[in-house]
User: Which sequence fits this backbone?
């Protein structure tokens, strides 16, 4: 019988997920076989199935990792004094996370899978709801502090901040030669111009 | 031997593409078999292969259809007197095109496939290059007319306009209950606030 060494088990799980991410990014979820993941991880199928009973379980674990990354970002920024600055930093950090093309391709795979696989869809929806709620809280704090246009609907504005960062992730994957770092100033500019109070809003 | 009736052939091709789009949106490109497409189109494999020699050829035809839709939009708006208004209308029209969830899912499938399949990738890149060049021309016209902030880099701003509309497409697919129509005013607002001349740009 296997003895449970929690440290070793966690290390193994990470090793499998790393190998799976490489395979999925290259071939997509559906075209990747568990045999390919085993080969990339240097493990036997029996060993792999000890940690993840199915390919679906690996995909769900990757979606959970994405959620954890996002929550850690929010923990870091949600208490910042400067709410508008925190929103900008969050958007830049999300773009930086995805400036690794492997990570960005996996984000698109997870998104595509979320539309087809109810388990991944539920994880994805929960993740998104948390991100949008967190952004809406920051927007409301920014409004109270006079940094954010109080005429904006915080819920709707949060949706568009998410859309903007997703668009940035899509650029990393789809645009050959897109350098996230070069585009950071313009992302900051779009967010600032969109959110700040508009003293002279025309028409 | 088959006789070539161009009208009938075009009708058949459309019929196959419509059936394929439904299958792909539901299962993804890789998990869809040509047998499923035949069944959905009500055709024998021999008949289907007469029009499309492979699943890859069907995928390429769908990517070409997307490109045609985009080019038609540009033909309609690129000569408009009001360049800033034309940019807003283009973005809204792209969001409207993708407010059909089937179409939006196919857009994400094509994007994911573009990262893996060089033929689709080349089509996709050509499409994108044309869209960005068209937007940059409109931005420059808007700058000359005093409608668009002349300090913006037209090429970079075009990239972010594309990112914004891609983000909107992602919302249609990924956000249960997202109503494109309700979000049109905010998309217009983001674009306008981002692009217009900034008389009082702070620090």
Assistant:
């Amino acid at each position: 019988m296997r003895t449970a060494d929690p440290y070793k088990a966690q290390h193994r799980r990470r090793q499998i997920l790393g190998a799976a991410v490489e395979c999925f990014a290259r071939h997509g979820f559906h075209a990747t076989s568990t045999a390919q993941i085993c080969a990339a991880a240097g493990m036997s199928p029996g060993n792999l199935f000890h940690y993840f009973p199915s390919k679906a379980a690996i995909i769900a674990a990757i979606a959970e990792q994405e959620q954890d990354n996002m929550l850690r970002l929010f923990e870091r920024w949600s208490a910042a004094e400067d709410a508008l600055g925190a929103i900008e930093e969050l958007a830049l950090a999300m773009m930086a996370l995805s400036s690794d093309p492997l990570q960005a391709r996996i984000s698109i795979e997870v998104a595509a899978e979320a539309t087809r696989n109810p388990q991944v869809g539920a994880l994805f929806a929960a993740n998104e709801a948390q991100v949008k709620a967190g952004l809406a809280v920051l927007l409301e704090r920014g409004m109270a502090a006079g940094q954010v246009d109080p005429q904006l609907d915080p819920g709707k504005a949060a949706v568009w901040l998410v859309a903007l960062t997703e668009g940035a992730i899509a650029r990393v994957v789809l645009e050959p030669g897109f350098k996230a770092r070069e585009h950071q100033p313009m992302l900051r500019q779009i967010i600032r111009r969109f959110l700040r109070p508009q003293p002279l809003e025309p028409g």
In short: The two ends of chain A are 74 Å apart (CA to CA). Chain A has two domains: 1-53, 59-195.
